[in-house]
Each structure stands twice: as structure tokens, then as C-alpha cells.
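Continuing from the previous page of notes. For each protein in this section, the sequence appears first, followed by its C-alpha cells. Read the first protein now.
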Amino acid sequence: MGAGTTKGEALRIRRVRADDMPRVAALDRRVTGVGKAAYWRDIFARYGKRRLRERFFLIAEPAAHGAGKQLLGFIVGEVRAWEFGSAPCGWIFALSVEQGARLRGVGEALLEAIAAEFVKSGVTKVRTMVARSDRLPMLFFRGAGMAAGPYIQLEMDLA
């Protein structure tokens, strides 16, 4: 992947490894308040080990020597194609940054890294979905230049 800087701090973005998964699950638990280690093991099996030209599970860590055990954030996405005739696009379905690392460019570096991977895969558009009421991701993605697209999300209760 590569390196970047987060307001003076060197940052390394790389593909996830199996030994990262406890830190990924712990970060997600701190951010969401829900522990779901089994879910993250499954995501690693699907996005960290298979079809790696179109699936991306990236982590951000300090680039300093010996700092590799500190997880600053992660992003997960894939190239998706042909849902209801749509052209292939990059799809981001997970992004999380350690609270103490926010506003230091970690999320932006992760988004840039996955966008570069999507471009290498041949797509020219990226999509995600956020709840209208979830202010933090809404502000982040809008600030990164994302806007409402041509599709509308539909849902119905099954109960």
C-alpha cells in the first residue's frame, strides 16, 4: 500500500493480517459499543484472504519502527458490479478510526488508499451508505467529496 502523513505523524497503510484481527474487533467494539469478534473473523476470511484484486481490507498504523501493534483505523470495501444493471464500482462498507486519532488524517489516508486500489481494479466511482442521522460518517464522506448518487436505498420491515 503505502505511507502517508497525518498532520506531522508518519502513517503506514497496509493490507490486514490475521494477527491484526483482535485489534480490529476491539476498535470496532470501542466505536460501536457492540462486540462481534466472530463477524470480524468472517470478514477477514472473505476480504483479507480471497479475491484480493477486488476486495480490500486495509489498516492504518504509525510508520515508526516498533509501532506496528498500534491500530489507528481500518477500511473495508470491494469492487461490486451489476446489481440491477449498474456498472462496476468500489463499495466501502466499513471505516473506523480510533477516537484519539481522529482529525489527524487517518480516515482520509484510508479512503485515499482504498480509492487507489479501486482505480487499479478498473473502476471510476466509489459508493457507500450511511444513516442520515449518523453525523460523523456523513460529515466525513461529504467532506471527502461524496454526494448523493443516482440510486435510492429501499427497505421494508419483515416482522
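Done with the first. The second protein uses the same format. Note its length before scrolling.
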Amino acid sequence: MALVLGVATYGCATTAASPQLTRRSIKHVVIVVKENHSFDNYFGSLENPPLSLPHCPSRLTQTGCQYDNSDIPDYYQYASAFGYADNYFTEVRGPSWPNHMMMIAGQSPLDNNPPGPLSTWVCPVTCYDFPTIGDRLINSGVTWRNYGEQIYDPFRSISRFATDEVHNVGVPQFFDDIGSGTLPAVSWVRPSGPDSEHPGYDVVQGEQWTVKIVNAIMQSRFWSSTAILVTWDDVGNVIDHVSPPIIEKSATGTAIRYGFRVPLLVISPFTKAGTMSHELLSHVSLLRFIEVLFHIDSLTFRDRTAQGLAAFFDLTLPARGALIL
């Protein structure tokens, strides 16, 4: 299934952290969402001084331990060759569903997962009608797709997108769209369970899946104009040692803004090697980045006031070459 790209003209969006974010340089944003790892668990060895936790004894069990460059070398290579954030937090101190909703809407009506089974996480059982970034993009003539929904596609919990088979497609369509030259301007790519890195699944297999996504972009004509953002939806039971600031709570008392730290990798031809951000960032920073880049209105006060990702990009430099792993 091909997605016909809309035509739109954009000017420049200026932020305090970067000269300019302009669609002339970054025309595509690809957000890869993985499962349940804290910053400590994956990148504690990059802390200064390095975090000292026991090394994880298994690629399937992650509680109370940490991985390092010998376990997930490609993630470490991306962090070194491009950029990462060490002060990036989930939005909700809770599980997947509310954090996925925050990523696409800047709000969540629930601070926990809906009752099981997983199939009830979508319409018509769990169904809402608030605005999402998908709506903002459509209204601005900017194309988008969510690739992959074997675990959870948050757009399926929004009534108008629940049966939308143009914007909600399988991961194989991602590779088809790259090959046919129809990659939309904004993409979310979500793995199936075995590739998700969720505890109980092999983190190395999950990393290799992510590398396939990144390599496909880097080997295509889209690399010179694409920003790839890789993050993890929540920490699960792998707690981080940094206590997140609490600036908002839900009606039930659950911390909203912020949950614990998770990794964020930023991979683009305009990201200098070794870029590291200490800025306070969170899942809604991804929304802010899209909104600034494509000149669209914010959804809530959360994304409107969030720090964006402009510090990761230097658009005064020529596009860097790809790093195929």
C-alpha cells in the first residue's frame, strides 16, 4: 500500500538551542519506540562516574542490573557516532498505555494500563476522542504513518483512527514505503513482542531489529533528510537511580511529569558525533520537535512548554554520511 505524499511549503522555525530547524534540511522524522528499559539499565556505564550495578546475567532478565557495550554494541555506537540524552524522562510514572498516549497527544485519560487482555486496549472498548499529533499533521497537509501494532498502537484508541488502515499499517510496509520513495514525513515504528526488548525477550534480538530499521533509512535516499529518534516507552520494573522531578500528578496521585529516565538516541546526518544533551527532556519533547519542525500548533500545555530537540542538530554543516551496522 503506497501513501501519496502531500505538498506543503514551510519556512524556518527558530529555537533558542539551534540556529534553525527547517524542512529544507529535515524532511522526515522516524520515531522508534522500544519497551521497558531505564537509562541506568542500558547506558549506566556512560554516566560520570560510571554507574556500578551488577552486569545483567541474561539477555532476558534485566532487574537490578545493567548492560554495557559488550551486550548492546550498536546502541553504544549510535550514542557515540551521533547523540543521546541522559536527562530524558517518561511522562507518566507508570506502564505503556499512558506513556504511548502522551507521545501522540500530550495527555492521557489513564495513568495505568486499561484492564486486560491487551486486545481491549483499543476501540471500541478503550476509546477516546481527544486531539492527537496525527490530527495536527493531517490538518497541515503533512503525511504520517504508524508502522506496527502487534504490541500496541495508541492511535487505535482514538475513535477516528481506530479503523484507519492508511495511517495504521504493519512494519513490512515501512520497508516498502522506503523502497517506493513514499516514506511519510512523520513515522512511528513499533516492534512485535520478540523484537521489543521487553523483559522476557532477547535484548540483542531487539537491538538487531532496530538496526534493520536504521540501516534501511541510511541506505535509502531519505537518509540525508531524516531524523531518527529511538526511545523506550517506560522502565517497567528496571528502576533508574535518578529521582525524576514531580511537577504534576494525576487525580489518583500518580506522578505525571515525570516518570523515570529512559534512553533517547538521536541519529541524523546533522547530529555531530558525541552529542550529549543534559537538558530536561521527556516524551512530549518528541511532540515539540515535530510541531516546531512542521509549524503546527501544540496539543496541550505539556508539549507547548516542553524543551525540544534542536540542540541535537547543527544545520550549518553538510549532511553526514551514513553509518551502516
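What the second structure shows: The two ends are 28 Å apart (CA to CA). Residues 23-257+268-312 form a domain with the Alkaline Phosphatase, subunit A fold (CATH 3.40.720.10). We return to this in next week's lecture.
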